[in-house]
Amino acid sequence: MKFLERALKGPNEWWKYLLLPIIAFLIANTIGAIPLGIAAIFGVVNGGAMNPDNPGDLSGLGLDPNLSLFLLMFPFLVGLIGFILVLKPFHKRNVKEVINGTQSIRWNRFFYSAAVWAMISGLMLLVDYSINAEYFELNLNWSLFLPLVIISLLIIPFQTTFEEVIFRGYLAQGVARWTRNRWLVAILPAIAFGLLHVMNPEVKEYGFWITMPQYIIFGLVFGLMSVLDDGIETAMGAHAANNIFISIFVTAKASVLQTPALFVNNHVDPVKDLIVMTLAAVLIIAILAKKYNWNFAVLNQRVAGEKE
Hints:
This protein is mainly α. The protein has 11 helices and 3 strands; from the N terminus they run αααααβαααααββα.
């Protein structure tokens, strides 16, 4: 086991685990948001307006929806670069060591997990559509859809990687450093991950106590995958596949990302979505556990090593 144990070496003052994520998010939302800010200013000058109920909906500014998606995702790319640059002087380790404690990234795990989650998501959508076809509105516009596919595949992985590196990688290693408890490694970053999304329009539309469990369970599943697999590649892959799939295939009025997706879901049932997501989470863990021979007893083992 190397992923969590790597955090037991080198400079690891507790305040760094609070400060570095703040720095990364500040970089993302200042430097990274400059293109979005410029576009918003031009939009307002030309008579447009932001959507106060959904900041991710830039249609009121007159922007192309695919350009809007790029502008909303670009800050995460800048934030990821900022995190990588500050990480080395803070902790004397690189981003690969945050991903799995070694000097190489297991890309085969990333792509396998992404493929599995994409297939599960496709199956869920197919079943939902076959049962509730009247809730779905076909939204196919080839001139928008094809660029959407390309942009989603290119830019969304930076957004999901940024979140995974921060929560399932960096903060998880920090929790491991100070608690040595693998369950807390999965649970505490999952709660922080859920609270990060508290301002999403879905929370306002459907209610905190309905939507927040979805985000926390989502984060917990990725946390368990990371602990069991001794690295975050499977979580990175599944998270990227999830967000890309949603961006390309189905959107809704209250979705944080308003894209020209293939379908618009006009009747979102958050309780049903919570149940379905939980079943999907169990399924992907079962598939990956079988594929990679995960040992669930690891969850009860203390993170070994001497503090330095």
